[in-house]
């Protein structure tokens, strides 16, 4: 597994924990624009 810099300026996919919406952004959106749920960086594995 490779290390991922969560502060990177490159475009990264983010997924909403609640509704599953996926957006591509350069910075973390914080909350889902559709439902307001928490977003996660899909390049960082869940453990």
UniProtKB/TrEMBL annotation:
All residue ranges annotated as the DUF7129 domain in the record: 4-46
InterPro entries per UniProt: DUF7129
Coiled-coil residue spans: none
Gene3D superfamilies xref list: 2.20.28.10
NCBIfam families from the UniProt entry: rubre_like_arch
Protein name: Rubrerythrin-like domain-containing protein
Organism name: Halopelagius fulvigenes
């Amino acid at each position: 597994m490779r290390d991922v810099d969560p502060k990177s300026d490159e475009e990264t996919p983010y997924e909403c924990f609640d509704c599953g919406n996926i957006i591509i952004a350069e910075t973390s959106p914080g909350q889902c624009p559709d439902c307001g749920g928490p977003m996660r960086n899909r390049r960082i594995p869940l453990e």
